[in-house]
């Protein structure tokens, strides 16, 4: 008999503002983030009102983790202290490794229209938290896309997609946490059974439509956290768009203070001193 991953919990995001007043939904993040290890936060932003996004995210620091920004619609410009400049556009991905420290800005490149997408924070293992910072933009054409025999459109941002019929490596591979990040678009009546390694933490965020997860009905704007073993079957009678997020937990202490994520309070205090003394990126 097939063992299926169990639905452990469902979550509803909270409306908030970040940066210089960008309105967004914090799908998860903050208290209890150990439940989502190795992922720290997921934000969803989406508005056709420029007042909700035009102020953007002026220069700010990070240390100890990676950020993945996936743009569905709109244009955002990245600049950082390393001299990197990139334009994130519809369908593109920005993957930034803060590690020891990075100071960057993310500012809209538009005065009107829709800006819509996601930002995911991925933890780094303790041994890499003070490593070299890095940044890479992935243009839409650099990100593999496929359609399964059942008509499911899959954008393979990171990891390895495998449903037993189609296999495709993503644009990004990472050791240790082995992140899997797929954008799934299920037409009405479609089914999908992505294969994921036992031991990986699996999250599903339904951002359009309704989804069936191993027989459980999941509505729009719901995040589902699944157990770490078993098969996964997805279906949608009416159609759905879903982020599938999976990764191997680090099982290390997580201490967060704003934009700094380390393993101890002492390391956070050091990060604050480094930032105060202009040594965060040294």
TrEMBL record:
Q: Which keywords belong to this entry? A: Iron, Metal-binding
Cofactor(s) the protein needs: Fe cation
Coiled-coil-forming residues are none
The Pirin N-terminal domain covers which part of the protein? Answer: 22-122
How is the cofactor bound, in the record's words?
Binds 1 Fe cation per subunit.
GO MF terms held by the record: metal ion binding
Which parts of the sequence belong to the Pirin C-terminal domain? Answer: 182-279
UniProt-listed Pfam families: Pirin, Pirin_C
At which positions is Fe cation bound? 60, 62, 104, 106
Which family, according to UniProt? Belongs to the pirin family.
Q: PANTHER family under this entry?
A: PIRIN, PIRIN-RELATED
| Protein name (database record) | Pirin family protein
Origin species, per record, is Aquipseudomonas guryensis
């Amino acid at each position: 008999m097939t063992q299926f991953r169990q639905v452990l919990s469902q979550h509803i995001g909270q409306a908030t503002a970040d940066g210089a007043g960008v309105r967004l939904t914090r799908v998860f993040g903050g208290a209890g983030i150990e439940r989502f290890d190795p992922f720290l936060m997921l934000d969803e932003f989406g508005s056709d009102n420029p007042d909700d996004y035009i102020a953007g995210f002026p220069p700010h620091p990070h240390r100890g983790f990676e950020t993945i920004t996936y743009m569905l619609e709109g244009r955002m410009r990245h600049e950082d202290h390393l001299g990197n400049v990139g334009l994130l556009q519809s369908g593109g991905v920005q993957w930034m490794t803060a590690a020891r420290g990075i100071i960057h800005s993310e500012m809209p490149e538009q005065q009107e229209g829709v800006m819509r997408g996601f930002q995911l924070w991925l933890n780094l293992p303790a041994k890499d938290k003070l490593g070299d910072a890095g940044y890479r933009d992935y243009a839409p054409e650099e990100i593999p896309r496929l359609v399964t025999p059942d008509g499911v459109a899959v954008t393979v941002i990171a990891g390895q997609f495998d449903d037993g019929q189609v296999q495709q490596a993503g644009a990004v591979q990472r050791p240790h946490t082995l992140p899997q990040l797929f954008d799934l678009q299920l037409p009405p009546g479609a089914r999908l059974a992505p294969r994921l390694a036992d031991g990986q933490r699996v999250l599903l965020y339904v951002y359009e439509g309704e989804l069936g997860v191993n027989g459980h009905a999941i509505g729009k704007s719901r995040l589902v956290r699944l157990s770490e073993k078993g098969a996964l079957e997805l279906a949608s009678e009416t159609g759905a768009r879903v982020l599938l997020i999976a990764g191997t937990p680090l099982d290390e202490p997580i201490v967060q203070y704003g934009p700094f994520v380390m393993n101890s309070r002492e390391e956070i205090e050091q990060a604050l001193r480094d930032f105060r003394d202009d040594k965060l990126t040294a």
